[in-house]
Amino acid sequence: MSEPIKTYRDLIAWQKAFSVGKVVYAAASKLPDHERFGLIAAIRRSSVTVASHIAQGYGRGNTQDYLWFLKQARGEIYQLDTQLLFATDFNYLPADDYRPIKQQLDEAERVLAGLIRSLGG
Questions:
Q1: 8 Å CB contact between 3 and 10
Q2: How far apart are the C-alpha atoms of 115 and 50, rounded to whole Å?
Q3: pLDDT digits (tens, 9 = 90+) for 63-121
Q4: Pick from 117, 8, 104: which is nearest to 52 by CA?
Q5: Degrees (nearest 5) of the Cα angle 115, 87, 56?
């Protein structure tokens, strides 16, 4: 039997988002310095926003707001994947680095989608 949810940190969706966020944030350092204010900034912002939205929604205290933030987090996953695809297509991020990140993003999205469904969203 799993432990009860006492805080947003207990949510598997948040844990997966936090984990992939750290990996992506670090991977952004491989991008060229001239992208510091472009793709690097966008990727890093998106990488922390997914877990942040899950936490913020949890803290809102009502299901409607919670669902809204969870759906925002899901949108951020898609946005982040798009940004990483740009980086890969521009040969800033090696495809061998992108593939495992994409697997983590897909897993985070699956778990997040399950949480959204469980709340009636």
A1: yes
A2: 14
A3: 999 999 999 999 999 999 999 999 999 999 999 999 999 999 999 999 999 999 999 98
A4: 8
A5: 30
Residue-range domains of the chain with CATH:
8-118 (1.20.1440.60)
pLDDT confidence bin for 2, thresholds 50/70/90 = low
- Given 3-state DSSP classes, what are the helix, strand and coil percentages for the chain, each rounded to the nearest 5? 80, 0, 20
Decide: 72 and 10 in contact? Cβ < 8 Å: no
Contact 80, 47 (CB under 8 A): yes
Residue range 7-29, pLDDT digits in tens: 999 999 999 999 999 999 999 99
In the block, tokens 């936090």 appear at 18
Task: Say how far apart CA 89 and CA 28 lie, in whole Å.
Answer: 14
- Amino acid, single-letter form, for residue 36: R
Which tokens is 105 given?
């993003």
